[in-house]
């Protein structure tokens, strides 16, 4: 079973802490707690992961980002990736080869995962019924600490 984790990028970036950081890999650009805990989970339990950014789409950790930005999926369409661009990027990166997609993202990302994933891929949102960022962070940390991934099937 091959699983791809989709993790959120996050508003807080390296340039907020160090405005002179310059170009950095995506894996170093996002410094918020939710991103970090989601990435730790993804690296531990998933075959691979992508960081989903409204501006840049599906980012690999080694993809280079050159500057700070503040774009969300609620931003005007001229600032963010279009659905067509996301689908094209998903296909170019060969992301349909994964059996499962694990969305560790908020609700605003869900429509974009639904339109990009291949029809045969199963998508799970293990954090969707957890209210509050504190509880989400706790669940991610607990899964990592207990070496227990979220179930991929409804219990």
Percent of sequence in beta strands: 15-25%
Order of helices and strands: EHEHHEEEHEHEH
Distance between the termini: 18 Å
Question: How many structural domains does the protein architecture include?
Answer: 1
**Gross morphology:** globular
Can you identify the CATH class? Alpha Beta
Oligomer: single chain
According to CATH, what is the topology?
Rossmann fold
Unreliable stretches, pLDDT < 50, 5 or more residues? none
Query: Count of helical segments?
Result: 6
Determine Rg (CA atoms, Å).
15 Å
How is the biggest beta sheet arranged? Answer: 5 strands, mixed
Please tell me the overall pLDDT.
94
List keywords for this structure.
155 residues, alpha/beta, Rossmann fold, two-stranded antiparallel ribbon, 7 strands, 33% helix
Walkthrough of the structure:
This protein has about 160 residues and is α/β, with parallel strands linked by helices. The protein has a single domain, classed as 3-Layer(aba) Sandwich (Rossmann fold), CATH 3.40.50. Helix content is about 35%, strand content about 15%. The chain contains six helices and seven strands. It has a five-stranded mixed β-sheet with strand order 4-3-1-6-7, with helices on both faces. It has a two-stranded antiparallel sheet with strand order 2-5. Helix 3 (about 35-45) packs parallel to helix 6. The chain is globular, with a radius of gyration of 15 Å.
């Amino acid at each position: 079973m091959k699983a791809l984790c989709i993790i959120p990028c996050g508003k807080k970036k390296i340039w907020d802490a160090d405005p002179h950081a310059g170009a950095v890999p995506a894996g170093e650009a996002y410094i918020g707690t939710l991103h970090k805990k989601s990435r730790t989970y993804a690296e531990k339990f998933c075959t691979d992961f992508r960081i989903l950014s409204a501006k840049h789409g599906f980012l690999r950790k080694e993809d280079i980002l050159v500057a700070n930005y503040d774009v969300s999926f609620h931003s005007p369409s001229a600032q963010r990736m279009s659905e067509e661009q996301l689908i094209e990027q998903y296909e170019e990166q060969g992301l349909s080869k994964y059996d499962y997609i694990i969305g560790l993202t908020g609700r605003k990302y869900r429509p974009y995962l639904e339109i990009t994933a291949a029809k045969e891929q199963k998508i799970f949102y293990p954090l969707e019924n957890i209210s509050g960022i504190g509880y989400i962070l706790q669940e991610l940390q607990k899964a990592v600490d207990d070496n227990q991934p979220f179930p991929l099937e409804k219990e």
